[in-house]
Amino acid sequence: MATESNGMHMTSSSSPPPAPDDEPRYGGYSRFEIELEFVQSLANPFYLNHLAAQKLLTQPAFVAYLAYLQYWNRPPYLKYLTYPGPTLRHLELLQQERFRQDIMSPDLVQRLVEEGMRSAVQWHREGA
């Protein structure tokens, strides 16, 4: 098991985590819970910028971990995401080397924030 600089464990396994009851705990949390919290944090453009500033998006092991997290695009995992739109969009963008470099730009971060706000407003208008 590889470890990134902030101590979060990354697995080399290419399969999604097992059911939460059947897996070991890390600091009291299952791998499923840890990965769910992390993947949902990707919806935040400021967090993406932070990851880039910490040079994590240039580390091959971390990039491989982002590719592994693509399983969140599929059932049954998809249903656990609170904000599936921005979470999965940003996860997909993070698969592109150019985006991993460009997210350092405050202009791109601001554009993603604005797009997220527009999408939320549109969703509420359509759902009303």
UniProtKB/TrEMBL annotation:
Gene3D superfamilies: Mediator of RNA polymerase II, submodule Med31 (Soh1). The keyword Nucleus applies. Residues 1-11 have a biased composition (Polar residues). GO terms for molecular function: transcription coregulator activity. The keyword DNA damage does not apply. Pfam families: Med31. It is found in: Nucleus. Keywords: Activator, Nucleus, Transcription, Transcription regulation. Residues 1-27 are annotated as: Disordered. Its main location: nucleus. GO terms for biological process: regulation of DNA-templated transcription. It comes from the Eukaryota. One of its GO terms (cellular component) is mediator complex. Component of the Mediator complex, a coactivator involved in the regulated transcription of nearly all RNA polymerase II-dependent genes. Mediator functions as a bridge to convey information from gene-specific regulatory proteins to the basal RNA polymerase II transcription machinery. Mediator is recruited to promoters by direct interactions with regulatory proteins and serves as a scaffold for the assembly of a functional preinitiation complex with RNA polymerase II and the general transcription factors. Component of the Mediator complex. Belongs to the Mediator complex subunit 31 family. This is Mediator of RNA polymerase II transcription subunit 31. The lineage of its organism: Eukaryota, Fungi, Dikarya, Ascomycota, Pezizomycotina.
